[in-house]
Amino acid sequence: MAIKLFDSELKVMDVLWKEGDKTAKHISDILKEQIGWNMNTTYTVIKKCIAKGAIERREPNFMCHALITKEVVQEAEAEELIDKFFDGSPDKLFAALLDDQKLSKTQIENLRRMVAELE
User: Fold this and answer.
1) Which residue, of 2, 13, 36, 85, has the fewest CB within 10 Å?
2) Residues 6 or more apart from 2 whose CB is under 8 A from it?
3) Which residues pair with 66 in a beta bridge?
4) Residue 11 to residues 47, 70, 97, 108, 119: CA-CA distances in angstroms?
5) Predicted pLDDT of residue 1
């Protein structure tokens, strides 16, 4: 079963996915600079991620290690989006994404290549 992460938890995970294992203090410093969170807020969110099994706390220095990858979360979120808004139909999502979009020739070619690889 996939771990459901809220937006605040994804902000913490994103730091770990981009930078690798970091101390809670380092994560707090980054999120203070990026979005203005104070240390208590960041530590609370980190502890929620630990409780959900998304982060492992290691010592010394409250080192945080991501236990799930960004790709796993992206896949679970995409599946939820498709189920919730597109009747479980990936082609309906695809059609919605393409509707009224101005795609470059390169983007269209990339999409054709991806579809061809699935066939």
Assistant:
1) 36
2) 72, 73, 76, 79
3) 55
4) 13, 11, 25, 31, 35
5) 58
In DSSP terms, 65 is beta-bridged to 56
Residue 55 zone, left/alpha/beta (φ > 0; ψ -120 to 50; rest): beta
**Nearest in space to 25 (alpha carbons), one of 37, 8, 10:** 37
- Give just the sign of the alpha carbon dihedral 82, 85, 88, 90: negative
Give the HSE-up count for residue 47: Cα atoms under 13 Å, Cβ half-sphere: 6
**pLDDT on residue 114:** 87
Q: What is the pLDDT of residues 52-102, one digit of tens each?
A: 999 999 999 999 999 999 999 999 999 999 999 999 998 888 888 787 677
11-53 per-position pLDDT tens digit: 999 999 999 999 999 999 999 999 999 999 999 999 999 999 9
Q: Which residues contact 48 (CB under 8 A, 6 or more apart)?
A: 9
Cβ-based burial of 32 (10 A; exposed 0-12, middle 13-18, buried ≥19):
middle
